[in-house]
Amino acid sequence: MKRESAIGIALVSPTLILTALLIGVPAVYVVWLSLTSKHLLLRQADFVGLANYLRVLQDSSFWSALKLSFVWMFANWAIQLILGLGIALLLNQKFVGRTIIRGIVLFPYVIPTIVAILLIKWIFSETYGVSNYILLKMGMIKKPIQWFTAPSLAMTSLIGIGVWKYFPFMTIVILARLQTIDPELYSAANVDGASVFQQFRYITLPEISGVIIFISLLRCIWMFNMFDIIWLTSRGGPIRATTTLPVYSYIKAFKMQQYAVGCTIAIIATAFMIVGTLLFFRIALGKEET
Amino acid sequence: MLSHSAKKILKRVGLYTGVGLSTMLVMGPLYWLVSSAFKTPAAIVKYPPDLLPKAITLENFRLLFAQTPFLTYFKNSVITSVVSTFLSVAVASVAAYSLTRFRYMGRRLIPRLSLFLYMLPRILLIFPLFVLLYKVKLTNTYTGLVMAYTAFSLPFLVYLLTEFFKTIPVDIEDAALIDGANRCQVFFRVTLPLGLPGIIAASIFAFIWAWNDYLFAYILMSSPRKYTMTVGIAHLVQKLGINWAHLMAAATLYTIPSLLFFIIIHKRLIKGAFGGAVKG
User: Fold this and answer.
1) Which residues have a Cβ under 8 Å from the Cβ of B165 and sit 6 or more positions away?
2) pLDDT at residue B280, rounded to an integer
C-alpha cells in the first residue's frame, strides 16, 4: 500500500512542482507586495501592512471598476450562454453540411485575440468600417455609429466582442452533452403529445444542467479576469468607461507605477472570486444533492 | 392549428434560417479578413468599401514575406506551441491518472487548489514570473516560454483530465494488474487508448492557448528573432502603422491553418472534451 502511495505522489509531483514554482511563487510574491509600498521602478519596498487595502477600498475608481467587472462578467456569461445554447440546439438537428458548419462555428474561438480585435475594430471602424456602411445602405441608421469611441456604447461593443469570441466554447460543450441524450426520450414525449417547448423544459434542460453549471463557473472566472480584449481594444477608455478590475490594476501597477497598489487590487479581485466560487458551489451543487 | 406537414416545413425553414444566421455571424468577419488580404492597398482603405474585391492581388503576401520576418515568427509559434502542448498534456495526464487511481494524503485537495490557482489574474502574476525567470536566465528562451505555458495550463488540464479519467472503468486495469502487468504498461496500453478522446481534447485546448497567447510571449521574449506570431502581428501594427493590407495577409496566414485543422478535428473535440463532465 505504501509503495502505491509513493508512486501516486511521484506521478503528481511534476504538476505540483511546476505550478508551485511558476504560479505559486509569483502569487506569494504578489501577496507580499500588496503589503508594501513598492513602486514599479524603485527597488525599495517598505512594509505598510494593510494600508494599501484601506486605500483601495476607499477609492471610488475601485468601486466603479468592480461594478464594471460585474457588468462585463454577467453580460458575457448570460449572452454567451443563450447564444451558445441556441446554436448548439440548432447544430444538434440534422441538416445538410452539418459537420462542416460545426467546425466553422469554432472559428471565433480559434483565432488569436489580437487578430480578432484588429478584425473587429476594422469592421466596426466608424470612418471606414464595412458595418456602418452596410447599416447605412440598408437604411437602418442615419449616421455612422461610434461603436468604440462613444462612452455609452463602448462597453456594449466590447461585450459584443467577448460574446463573439467565446460563445463557441459554450456551444461545443453543450452540443457534446446534447448528443449523449437518448433519442428515445424525445420519441416517447412525441407520442405523448408534448410540444417542443415542453420537451425542452422537461427533457433537454435537466440533462444539460450539469454541464451548464460546470462551464458557467469557468466562464465567469475567465471573464472576470479578462484583460486582453478590453486593453487591446479600448485601453479601458473612453474616459474609464470600460475599466474593469484587471484593467484598473494594470493601470495602477504599470501606468501609474504604483505596483504595490496594483497587486492589492488583484488580490481583492481574487478574494471576490474565491468567495463567489464558494457560494456558487454551495448553491449550485447543494441543490443537486437534495 | 397548422397541419402536420405544414408544421414540419415551418420547422425546416426555421432551422435553416437559424443555421444560416449563425454561419453568417461567424463567417462574415472571416470572409472580410480573407477578402481584405487579397485586396490592393488602395481598395482596402476605400470608402464605401467593395464587398467583393474588384481585383485580386497576392502583393500583400509577397510584401509580408519580403519585408517582415513572418516565417521566423511562424516558426517560433510552432515550436513553442507544439512542445508546450506535448509537455503539459503529458504532465497533466500522468497527474490525472495519479489522482484517480491512487490514494494518498492531500489527494482531494489538489483539484480544488488547481481551481483556485486558475482564478489568479495573469497580468499581475506575469511581472514576478518575469523576474523569477530572469534570475535563472530563462527569459528570451524557448525553454522559459514553454515552461510558462505548461505551468499555466496545468490547472485546467489536470481538472479536465481528472474528470475524464474518472469515467474510465478501473476493472480492465485491475484485470491487467492481476495478470501481472505493471503500472507503466497498464497506463500506456489500457488507460491511454481508452482515454484518447479526452487526451486529444486536452491537447487541443493546450495548443490553442499557446498558439494564441500574446501576454506571455510579449513579456518573456525580448528579441525580435524569438517573437511568436501574435507578438509579431502586434509589432507590425506598431512598426508599420496600421497597414491593413499586411495585417490582413498575416492574420489570414496565421488563422487559416488553425481553422482547417479544427474543422478536421472538431469531431474528436466534441466527443472527447467533456466525457467526464458530460456524465456528471
Assistant:
1) B93, B96, B97, B99, B100, B101, B191, B195, B198, B276
2) 31
* Closest to B182 (Cα-Cα) out of A179, A7, A239, A20: A7
Q: What mean pLDDT is predicted for residues A8-33?
A: 87
Query: Which three cell numbers, joined as nine digits, stand for A207?
Result: 440533462
Pick from A11, A30, A87: which is nearest to B125 by CB? Answer: A30
pLDDT in tens, B117-162: 778 888 778 888 888 888 888 888 899 999 999 999 998 888 888 8
- Tell me if B36 sits within 8 A of B44, measured CB to CB: yes
Q: pLDDT tens digit string along A155-182?
A: 888 888 899 999 988 888 788 778 777 7
Instruction: Choose among B247, B255, B269: nearest Cβ to A111.
Output: B255
Q: Which pLDDT band, with edges at 50, 70 and 90, does B264 fall under?
A: low
Q: Which of B23, B49, B279 sits opposite A101 (nearest CB)?
A: B23
B241 exposure class (CB count in 10 Å sphere: 0-12, 13-18, 19+): exposed
- Whether B279 has a pLDDT exceeding 50, the answer reads no
Give yes or no for B115 touching A (CB within 8 A): yes
Q: List, in order, residues 6 or more apart from A189 with CB less than 8 Å away.
A: A198, A199, A202, A203
Cβ–Cβ gap A8/B103 under 8 Å: yes
Q: Which of A9, A18, A83 best tests the B interface by mutation, with the highest count of B CBs <10 A?
A: A18
Mean pLDDT over B9-15 rounds to 84
Q: Which residues contact B89 (CB under 8 A, 6 or more apart)?
A: B157, B199, B202, B203, B206
Helix/strand/coil for A195: coil
B41 preceded by cis ω (within 30°)? no
Nearest CA in chain A to B124: A263
Looking at chain A, which residue has its C-alpha nearest residue B244? A122
Q: Which of A8, A104, A177 sits opposite B278 (nearest CB)?
A: A177
pLDDT at A285: 67
The chain A residue lying nearest B270, using CA atoms, is: A176
Minimum distance, in Å, between the CA of residue B69 and any CA atom of chain A = 18
The pLDDT assigned to B274 comes to 47
Question: Which residue carries 474588384 as its cell?
Answer: B54
Q: Most B CBs within 10 Å: which of A107, A179, A208, A221, as the mutation test of the B interface? A: A107
Q: Model-level pTM?
A: 0.81
Instruction: Evaluate whether B263 touches A103 at the Cβ level (below 8 Å).
Output: yes
Place of cell 407520442: A191
Three-state DSSP class for B55?
coil
Q: Chain B residue closest to A1 (CA)?
A: B103
Task: Give the best residue of A5, A7, A16, A22 to mutate against chain B (max B CB count within 10 A).
Answer: A22
